[in-house]
Design brief:
Length: about 270
């Protein structure tokens, strides 16, 4: 088992220790930040790796920052996007899928574009792809989530590939994606998106939804594509969900497909 696979297995137990107990907030290795009233905790070492937080928490004059009654620094930053970025940082910036599986999709939730802005503000780089060769490699990673690899299907790697495709579309890094001048690249993106939205058990509701929302902004399907290739998975109202699919969980949240409609669902931990 490689290091990334081990990290995925240990994530639930190790990454979010700062969120499990009010008492852990007294740990000298944990810092609590109030993001528009929502408390988000993280390891000191991780926060030092994030340029904005390193400047704010360790280099600036602390008396210059507004704090709550418990001494936590107040940040005017979208709380859910901030939490997703902190989760990504705790994975040593390796598990890109966390950015999207930690971002809910109900009414009032953060958008992928808002998440990108938050990451840019924090100084966190979100990798993207821009060439046909990279798309070909990404397609292999996607399919490794379904088909047997040497050590079995790599669903974690497939989710990370899906997230990278989503951010590449959202950030416009894939050249001429919405242009007729590069149909090969466009068709490859359509094919990869179809694979992702049609495999609920691998990618879960949030990854699929965030990808589809960004995909629709830049690519208009033909009537034939929508009525034949995508008909089983997409309606005029958006993606379809199999609410009886026991395996359709997001990688980290443990929620089934129905959570996509719970407007008050909060994936963040309160102290």
């Amino acid at each position: 088992m490689d290091d990334v696979s081990k990290m995925r297995e240990e994530l639930t137990d190790l990454v979010f220790q700062a969120h499990r107990s009010r008492q852990i907030a007294t740990d000298k290795n944990v810092i609590i930040i109030s993001a528009r009233g929502r408390l988000v905790g993280g390891n000191v070492t991780i926060f030092r790796m994030i340029p904005f937080l390193n400047q704010t928490l360790f280099l600036d004059n602390q008396d210059s920052h507004e704090k709550d009654d418990e001494g936590n620094i107040l940040l005017d930053i979208h709380p859910e996007s901030f939490y997703a970025c902190i989760a990504y940082a705790h994975s040593a910036f390796m598990l890109q899928s966390l950015l999207l599986t930690k971002l809910s999709t109900g009414s009032g939730s953060g958008s992928v574009q808002e998440l990108i802005c938050t990451a840019d503000h924090l100084g966190i780089n979100i990798p993207t792809i821009s060439t046909m060769d990279e798309l070909v490699d990404l397609e292999k990673d996607l399919r490794n989530g379904k088909y047997d690899c040497e050590e079995g299907p790599d669903r974690g790697g497939a989710r990370d590939a899906a997230a990278k495709l989503c951010f590449s579309i959202a950030k416009g890094s894939i050249p001429m994606l919405s242009s007729n001048e590069n149909n090969k690249i466009k068709q490859k993106v359509v094919t990869d998106t179809l694979f992702i939205v049609s495999h609920q058990r691998i990618f879960g509701p949030r990854l699929r939804t965030h990808l589809w929302m960004e995909f629709e902004k830049v690519i208009t399907l033909t009537d034939k594509q929508r009525s034949k290739q995508f008909a089983e998975w997409v309606s005029d109202d958006g993606l379809k969900y199999d609410f009886y699919c026991a395996g359709c969980n997001d990688e980290d949240s443990g929620t089934d497909g129905s959570s996509i409609h719970e407007e008050d669902y909060q994936p963040m931990y309160d102290y």
